[in-house]
Design goal:
about 210 residues; mainly alpha; 9 helices; elongated; transmembrane transporter activity; transmembrane helix; AA_ABC_transptr_permease_3TM
Length: about 210
């Protein structure tokens, strides 16, 4: 317990940093993922091509490489932001590709007649998607989105290698202070467990209220 009690503020900063990264990156991933899913089912060929390219590139790019591209590439174009913001962008964009595929799979579970009925009433594609299709698709994609955001929380550990305050990065100063690396990682793992269990509990609650009964 000495590792935790004597370094509680250090663990606290790392824990809050990981929570912050997870929350902001999750919001960005959900927004971009839903947008890209809409692009992938849009009647406009250019939008479908853009959505497909987004998913293909990001799903097949190592996350560490994407961090390097964002952290080192964007400043070369004059975009200078705090490293935490860059980490949110990298995590959010990467995860959005997986959110997109989960949402698209959910859209495919909605009967085609639902969209046809909406269009027969004079609704546009945007109106049909937002008012008819997505609300029904949401019910079936709660579990996979929850799993994807849990993976995002764990992937946030990469940000510590880029001078971003997060939970895994606390092992470096603890190691320098001479603490047991085993116990340092035990408490780091406990912090990640708290975060992932909280996400799991949230999505279990959402699934009980709105999920598809099987």
């Amino acid at each position: 317990m000495d590792v935790l009690t004597q370094n509680f503020s250090l663990y606290g900063k790392g824990f809050l940093g990981t929570v912050e990264l997870t929350v902001y990156a999750s919001l960005l991933a959900l927004a971009l993922g839903i947008l890209m899913a809409a692009f992938r089912v849009a009647p406009v060929a250019s939008l479908r091509a853009f959505g497909t390219a987004w998913v293909t590139v990001l799903r097949n790019t190592p996350l560490t490489l994407l961090f390097f591209a964002v952290m080192l590439g964007l400043p070369r174009f004059g975009l200078v932001l705090p490293f935490t913001v860059f980490a949110v962008i990298a995590l959010g964009c990467y995860t959005s590709a997986f959110i997109c595929e989960a949402v698209r799979a959910g859209i495919n579970t909605v009967p085609v007649g639902q969209g046809e009925a909406a269009r027969s009433l004079g609704m546009t594609f945007d109106q049909t998607l937002s008012a008819v299709v997505l609300p029904q698709a949401f019910r079936s994609v709660i579990p996979p989105i929850g799993s994807t955001l849990i993976a995002l929380a764990k992937n946030s550990a990469i940000a510590g290698s880029f001078s971003v305050t997060e939970l895994l990065g606390t092992y470096k100063p603890l190691n320098e202070r001479g603490y047991s690396i085993i116990w340092s990682f035990v408490w780091i793992a406990a912090g990640y467990l708290i975060i992932t269990l909280a996400i799991s509990a949230l999505f279990s609650l959402l699934e009980r209220h709105w999920g598809v009964q099987r």
